[in-house]
Write a structure and sequence with these properties.
The protein is mainly α. It contains 13 helices and 3 strands. The protein has a 3-stranded antiparallel β-sheet with strand order 1-3-2.
Length: about 260
Amino acid sequence: MDWSVQQIARIAGTTSRTLRHYDDIGLLKPSRTGGNGYRFYNQASLVRLQRILLLRDLGLGLPAIAEVLDHEPDAARALARHLEWLRQEQDRLTRQIASVRQTLEGLKEGEPIMAEKMFDGFDHTRYKDEVGQRWGKDAYAEGDSWWRGMGPAEKDAWRERSRQLGSDWIAAAESGVAADSAEAQELARRQVEWLTGIPGTPASGSAAGGDRDVKGYVIGLGEMYVTDPRFAANYGGETGAAFVRDALRIYAGRHL
């Protein structure tokens, strides 16, 4: 079965103009074009469009989306990963809704608000399960305790440091310097220094059980930056993330 541009735009909640633009830039080609010039899309096209819209919701730009799609042509495998992430988000939002509802009910009834339940599902617990699965159940607790112990100014400074590091990586990647250049390796040094300062991770001095595998952790994170769209977005997309990965791998081989 084929669908016209107008049908797809209506079903997907987008516009015909957007679909034509995706065609023009090679992001989503129609499965066929009729003799009258009308574009038609088949099931495979719809699956690709679904992936495009999911990645767009993550904040990726169109060039980054194209890189992700090209890197992982297996739609079923890519969608399975994305579905797992969506389930985690669903759980987080469910907990947020319950938390806010409880606060509202308390305010309406004039009852005391339970502070320990007000912020369940908000950013500070967003990756709790994922962190635990990757690095152990104590990793999140250590990192969360560290973050909560910071004052507002310290948190702002840490966020700015993280933002600046990401911005510098993107600028270096766009400038065309090699991953083994002095500039890229200085960024890698800063990245490792930043990572080792986060308690609870395998790279930190407080790693659970003293199992401090900085080299393996840094190399593994570099790979994750490329394969996980959430992280690739921080470095301008898959190309930028691949540059970070390569620079970190070289740095790890030389210094860790």
